[in-house]
Amino acid sequence: MNEKTEQRMVRRASALGVMAMLIAGAAPGCGSSDSSSGKPGDGDPPGSIPDPDTVPPTVVSRTPNDGADAVSVRAPIQVKFSEPVKLGAKPVTLVIGNQELATTATLSADATTMTISPNSPIVTPAQVKVALEDISDIRGNRLVSNALWTWTAPLWLAVGDTVRGNGYQSTTIAVGPGDRVSAASFYNNNADPPRVIVHSIEGNNGKWAALADPFDVDDRLPPKLAVDRDGTTVMAFGPKSTEKLGLIRRWSGAQWDAMGTEFGPTAPDSVRFGLAAGSNGKLFAAHQVPDTNSNSHVAVRTFEGGGWILLGDTVDGGDGGYLTSMTLDKNGIPYVAYRSGSATSLEAHVRTWSGSSWKPVGSSPGKNTSTSFDLAFNDAGTLFALITSAESRRSSSRLFRFDGTNWQAVGAPLSTGECSYLSCGSSCLSSGTDGHVVAFTQLEGASPRAFEATKDGWTPLDLPPGNSRGVQACSADSRGTVVVGEIAADGSRINVHRLNR
Question: What is the reported pTM?
Fold first, then answer.
C-alpha cells in the first residue's frame, strides 16, 4: 500500500468519525457546537473535511532510459507518472550540449503519460538533457523527484550485430519498408569461383539472418539488391558462366525463386546491373548488352505479367561504356546513369523514361569519367550526381545537381587522389533528409571520406566508427535515413550503420 492510498483511507475514516459526532451532537441533551461561530470547525463550512493529499506525483518510467548511449533521434521521449498530472507554463527544459531546444509537451487521455516533442530536429552527435519542471498533480502538489535525466544520440547507429564471415571483399546494401535491410557480400573471395551470401535484418536491433547458403557468382561485382514495398528482398546477379547471363531472384522466405527468364548475354567484360523497387510496386532492372562491334549498351526492363518487359530501345554506351547506376524519382520513374564514348574519351550521361523513350537529362555532367558515377534524389525531389573523373593520372570526386535544365557543380571537389586507367576509386551517393544527400568517396591514394550536401554546398561528415575499408555501399529508407555497409579492414566481418538523422 503506498502513501497516497493510506491517506485516502485515513481521510474516509475521519469523515465517518466526524459524521458520527454531528449525529450525536444533534440529539437532545447531547451538547451543541460553538455558539460564537455556528460552524463545526474554524472557518470550514458545515460537514467539510480538510484535504490531506500532500504527496507529489513521481516518475514511474522514462523513455529513453537515463544514461542510454545509442538513442535514435526518432525515438519517442516520454515520461509516465504515478498519477494524473497537469502541465504548467514550462513543464520541460530540453538541452543539447549547452543550448536549449524548444519543445511541445502533451498528455495522454488519462493524463499519466507525457510526450515531449522537440520543435526542431536534434542534430547528432548530441548529449541530450531533460529537466521536468512545472508539473503537478490535480491537487497542486509539484513534481520534485526523478526530474532530470540524460542520454546520448550518436551520429551513427549500429544496425544489428556484426556479420562475421570469411574473406568478405565488398558489399551492396538495400533498404525497404519496415526498416528491412539486406546486404550482399563476397564470401571467401579467394575461392574460384568466388561466392556471395545475402543477409537480412529488420530494424536496428536483433541479428542478421543469412538468406540461404553462399552461391557462385561472376568474379567482377557482387549482386545488386532491392527491397520491394512488401519487404521482400530481390537480387540481380550474374552466375559464374561463359554466357554471363543476368538472373533475377526473389526471396520466398525459404529459397531464391526465379523471376522471369534470364537476361543475356550481358556485356562481355563484366556483369553490371541496376535494380530498383518503387513505392508503387514497380520493379526495374537495368543491365548491359553488347553488340557485334563490342560496344556496350544499356537496357532497362520492368517486371510485368511474370516477365521482364524492355522499356523502349537500348541506350548507346559506345566503346568502353557501361551502366553505373539507376534510381527512381518519387513517382517511380527510372533514371539511369552511364558513361559513353571511346575508351580514352568517356562522358557521363543521365537519361529518364518519358513513357515512350529515353530522354536526356541535361547535357553531360562530367568528362573523362572513371568507374564511379552515382545518382540520388533528395527528399525535396532534386537530382544529384556524384562523379569521379581523371585528368593526368589525378582523380577527383565532384557533386552535381540538376536544376531542371542543366547540371550545376555543388562546391569544390569533395576529394582528390591518384588514378590509374579506369581504376580511380569508388563512391556512393544516397538520398537524405531535409534537402540533403550523403556522399562517400574513396579514391586511390586517399583516405575514405564522407559528406553531407545540399544544393548550395557540402560539409564533411564523420565516417561510421570502426576499423574498415571505408563505406562500400549506401542506400536510404522511405524516410531518407541513410544506411551504409562497410567491410572490416581484415575482411572478417560486415558492419552496417544507420545515419542518426
Answer: 0.81
Task: Residue 285: count other Cβ atoms within 10 Å of its Cβ.
Answer: 25
Residues 249-286: tens digit of each pLDDT: 999 999 999 998 876 655 444 556 788 998 888 999 98
Inter-CA distances, 290 with 263, 272, 301, 321, Å: 12, 12, 16, 10
C-alpha cell at 400: 552535381
Domain match, 68 and 142 both:
yes
CA distances from 283 to 217, 275, 477 (A): 22, 8, 16
CATH number at residue 73: 2.60.40.1220
| Distance (Å, whole) CA 199 – CA 181 | 8
Query: What is the spatial distance between Cα 66 and Cα 99, in angstroms, rounded to a whole number?
Result: 19
Q: Are residues 193 and 267 in the same domain?
A: no
Number of structural domains in the chain = 5
Going from the C-alpha of 321 to that of each of 222, 271, 290, 316, the distances in angstroms are 20, 13, 10, 8
The three cell numbers locating residue 369 = 569519367
pLDDT on residue 476: 87
Q: Tell me the residue range of the domain where 302 lies.
A: 263-361
Cell 551504409 -> residue: 484
